[in-house]
Amino acid sequence: MVFILTSGLLCATALSAGGKDAFTDTFAVDKADLASVGTNRFFVLVPGFQAVLEGKEGGKPAVLTITVLPETKRVDEVETRVVEEREMVNGQLVEVSRNYFAISRRTSDVFYFGEEVDIYRDGKVTGHEGAWQSGVGGARFGLIMPGTPRRGARYYQEIAPLVAMDRAEVVSLSEKFTTPAGRFANCLKTKETSALESGREHKLYAPGIGLIYDGGLKLTKYGQGNQ
Questions:
Q1: Residue 32 in 3-state DSSP?
Q2: Domain ranges of the chain
Q3: What pairs with residue 45 in β-bridges?
């Protein structure tokens, strides 16, 4: 085990057998320093902010609506902000998740404390796959967005053994991208994978806005009180 300094935080990082740094999975943060409201360059945690992404999923029209709610929830001794994600495919609601985030007042790192998940089919809830909560069942909070991202940084976003182990690597900080909502420069590009399954996807985040591209979905509108 070695310790590295990432985004102002002291992070414990295991070394892989090949001698390269693995994904950071432990974050030495003072929970008293965490807040339920705030922003960093690529993440908005302010009640009322909303972003809508649209595109195709499995060849069918899909809409993802992300809304920072006025609600908070205490998770693992921290007051977190609730961010709702609603996914529609072919005009039908398929998933609603309530995600719990908190931001460091000192470094602006945003941490992910878990989520409630409702999976829908034909208008009815059929499951809760992927739900987890920091401090429950061995799960721990992960890092969703560094306050000072650095190219090559690798970190776990979710740390819930056997449930959710998503992780990200910063691959660029200078992307240009156009969506129906506008043209964006100096975007952050991540490569996301999971320790539980194969495959990978790329996401793009624009300064002052956050997520603008996710699995083929592109930002169509955003703003405060956009809902």
A1: helix
A2: 2-224
A3: 38
